[in-house]
From TrEMBL:
SUPFAM superfamilies with a match to the protein in the record: HAD-like (SSF56784)
GO molecular function, one term: phosphoglycolate phosphatase activity
Record protein name field: Haloacid dehalogenase
Xref: NCBIfam families: HAD-SF-IA-v1 (TIGR01549)
Gene3D superfamilies: HAD superfamily/HAD-like (3.40.50.1000), Putative phosphatase, domain 2 (1.10.150.240)
InterPro entries: HAD-like_hydrolase_sf (IPR050155), HAD-like_sf (IPR036412), HAD-SF_hydro_IA (IPR006439), HAD_2 (IPR041492), HAD_sf (IPR023214), PGP-like_dom2 (IPR023198)
Superkingdom of origin: Bacteria
GO process terms (BP): DNA repair
GO CC list: cytosol
PANTHER family in alphabetical order: HYDROLASE-RELATED (PTHR43434:SF24), PHOSPHOGLYCOLATE PHOSPHATASE (PTHR43434)
Any one Pfam family match given in the protein's UniProt record, by short name: HAD_2
Organismal lineage: Bacteria, Pseudomonadati, Pseudomonadota, Alphaproteobacteria, Rhodospirillales
Length: 223
């Protein structure tokens, strides 16, 4: 049997980090005397590289301001993590789904808009770090919807594109998968709605983690 890879997004797919992200974004804008964007708009850009997300939220500002807000965001996120004020809980059923996929012979990976420092902290908090054979972050590889994180994950894991499925909650995840020519599954519990994920090209949409292992396996046996 060929090596098969299940490549997960993190924010909105594995963990519910919206409150931590919104709080850090509010602090990042406020640090520069700016009115923070609405929480709903912040949730819309989760998954993009940080500077790109800030630029999307504030297109009228100069690039230097986007960089400065991003740095203030990172500082606020780190402070909040140390203080424990905005936890990033796992969604219900994550561990059981990972167990089932590993039992079915999959290796696991992550492709996320988080920084590597942030991803490492999240995985360590939940005791998940040993589960993943490849960790791709947008501070080291071009971010979504570029296919580069998928390509890097394939190279690091040894999997082929035909034996890989991306699992994510935003259209950025699905477009990344399409650009890399791998299959994708949208999850409806995250930050973009299911109709949008299907419109972006998701092969399937699942509504709970218990349905995910069979959905992933099914995509790769259709051929």
């Amino acid at each position: 049997m060929p090596l098969r890879l299940a490549l997960f997004d993190c924010d909105g797919t594995l963990v519910d980090s919206q409150h931590a992200i919104v709080a850090a974004m509010e602090a990042g804008f406020a640090a520069h005397g700016l009115v923070p964007p609405p929480a709903r708009d912040v949730r819309r850009v989760v998954g993009l590289p940080l500077v790109q997300a800030v630029a999307t939220l504030s297109p009228g500002l100069a690039a230097e301001a986007h960089e400065a807000i991003s740095e203030a965001y990172k500082a606020a996120f780190y402070r909040n993590r140390l203080a424990g004020t905005h936890p990033e809980p796992l969604f219900d059923g994550v561990v059981e789904a990972l167990d089932a996929l590993e039992a079915a012979g999959f290796v696991l990976g992550i492709a996320t808009g988080k920084s590597r420092r942030g991803l490492d902290a999240t995985l360590a908090h939940h005791g998940l770090a040993p589960r993943f054979v490849t960790l791709q972050t947008s501070d080291r590889v071009a971010g979504k919807p570029s296919p580069d994180m998928v390509f890097a994950a394939l190279a690091e894991s040894g999997a082929n594109a035909a034996d890989t499925v991306v699992i994510g909650d935003t259209s950025f995840d699905i477009l990344m998968a399409r650009n890399a020519r791998v299959r994708s599954i949208g999850v409806s519990w995250g930050y973009h709605d299911g109709a949008e994920l299907l419109a972006a090209g998701a092969d399937l949409l699942v509504h709970e983690y218990s349905a995910l292992p069979s959905a992933v396996t099914g995509l790769l046996v259709k051929d």
